[in-house]
Amino acid sequence: MVEALKKIVVMPPKSHGELLASALAGAWRPAPEPAELSAAEMSEVAPLLTVSGAAALGWWKIRHTDLRETPPASELRQAYRFQTLQSALREQQVAELFQLLEAAGVEAVLVKGLAASRLYPEPGLRPCGDIDVCVCPSQAALAARVVGSSEAKTFWVDLHEGVEGTDARDFKELYARAETLRLGATGVRVLAFEDHLRLLCLHLLRHGAWRPLWLCDVAAALEGRPADFDWARLLGADKRRARWVACAVGLARELLGASVEGTPFDDARARRLPRWIVPEVLRQWETPSASMQAPMRHRAPMRKYLREPSGLFADLLNRWPNPIEATVRVGGPFNEWPRWPFQLANCLTRTTHFLAGANRHGESAAGDETRAGRGITSKETNSTATT
After folding, report:
1. Beta partners for 160?
2. Fewest CB atoms within 10 A around its CB: which of 76, 103, 251, 377?
């Protein structure tokens, strides 16, 4: 009897990251497989789903199981109901905003947020966050005036010059092949499927993959692609960026069970991910809250330490970059090499830009550091947590 008991394997408890992966596997599908979670695990993962913006997807996953009767499930169901109402309101706001932009002659494209939610079975399954709008850099000033007008001041808009990872010429090409999303009587331009999936992949990695919802977006876009999907357009001519996209798709397959059947990623070589990247994503998912990400976790703006160095060293540790984010921001490869050289290079780049901007009048050095080191617009500091 004792010998038999010794043979019983006691499985260690799942980490927060593993619980999130179990709770969200296939959750973007119309009829996902039931979550393989106990009631105790449901109680543990529910707060993580809520803070990461995936509560509605968590409810969708358990709505036809016994877990729907557990106390945490009621909170997830409430989030689902709220997001359904919020989605309808956001559609109206987006339609009004694009009417204003069109009247001003601004060529604009809606990305992420509402553009991503259309890939899910119901719009309320994905929080809309702010309204991410990309415009041609040559029209950025005009678009900013529209966004800042009295008619649009109540909208939470994140205005981007161009599309992440492209230049002005590319934006015109992206706009020319963009699709039209009908919101009532208003036509809103959204990226073509290939361009949208590419953006979702790069956005996920550029922000360190700390938010599980972003990987669900990648999975939903991958599985919801049309039959004439252009894989060459998705991957592009840059082999390194193509590898970035492949890694994002590989993470969706490995962690969330996204199907890669019939894709260029369905072979042994393409399935091979760097050994460090899945554990790193799961580590990021231990604290999938915006408050735990840069710059919100920083104790003070760097300018403050120029006057009062006390506490600088401890805060520098808070500013050590996520290895996934650092790799992308310095243009590095996703391979088996150690990540610290890319993290150090990213720190040096941010420090150089901070020092260059520290003497400018009327600017926040902290904002300067964030925009230069993270390559984002002034509003994206907030939108990182919501889109």
Report:
1. 134
2. 103
Q: Which tokens in the block code for residue 206?
A: 């550029």
Report the number of distinct structural domains present in the chain.
2
Residues found in the chain: 387
Rounded distance, CA 17 to CA 153, Å?
38
CB 129 within 8 A of CB 114: no
CA–CA gap between residue 17 and residue 125 (Å, rounded) = 20
pLDDT tens track for 263-282? 999 988 788 999 999 999 99
What confidence tens digit (pLDDT) does each residue in 334-343 have? 999 999 999 9
Pairwise CA distance, residues 163 & 174, whole Å: 9
**Collapsed DSSP state (helix, strand, coil) of residue 347:** helix
Residue with tokens 């996520």, as numbered in its chain: 322
315 assigned to some structural domain: yes
Q: Which segment of 108-112, 230-234, 370-374 scores lowest on mean pLDDT?
A: 370-374
SS3 content of the chain, % helix, strand, coil (to 5): 55, 5, 40
CA distance to 134, 156, 285, 322, 385, per residue, from 379 (Å): 13, 10, 24, 21, 11
378 is a domain residue: yes
Last residue of a domain, one of 63, 82, 101: 82
% of residues, the chain, pLDDT over 90: 74
What does R_g of the chain's alpha carbons equal in angstroms?
22
If you write DSSP's letter for every residue of 32-77 in order, what string do you get?
PPPP---HHHHHHHHHHHHHTT-HHHHHHHHTTSGGGGSHHHHHHH
- The closest of 22, 69, 29, 76 to 54, measured between CA atoms, is 76
Predicted model pTM: 0.89
- Domain membership of residue 308 as a residue range: 290-383
Tokens of 148: 């800042």
